[in-house]
Amino acid sequence: MVTIPREMGDDLFYRYKRIMITPTIINKNGGTTQISTADISILAKQLGRSDIVIAHYIGKSAAAGMMIIGDKICYRKVMNAAEIDDIVESYIKKSVLCSQCGNPETVEYRESLVCKACGGVTR
Ligand SMILES: [Zn+2]
Known about the structure:
Structural class: alpha+beta
Low-confidence stretches: none
Strand content: 15-25%
Radius of gyration: 15 Å
Number of domains: 1
Shape: globular
Helix content: 25-40%
Oligomer: single chain
Bound molecules: zinc ion
Strand order of the largest sheet: 3-4-6-5
CATH architecture: 2-Layer Sandwich
Mean pLDDT: 95
């Protein structure tokens, strides 16, 4: 488990944690990266966001085409776990953390993030 955000890493009592996605790299046809839809669902639940939005965000950030095949999300690019985690972290900074107090317990409301901890609104 990784803290949300990662910088809180050495605080054992920190409440907000998430999984780190473990991809499978297929070195065929130029190379693809597969992620299980179950992993994305768990991560989405931990972040309080939509799994499909996160899946698309990873593809867009990596400039990689995405396809869902069965229970796998496949990207047309080779990405290791650290690269995917950096993208997940950038999503958290952009779309999950409150800009005022840094708390990850926010809800999306229209085009803004509303913080459940301080009530701050991030646009
Ligand atoms: Zn806040």
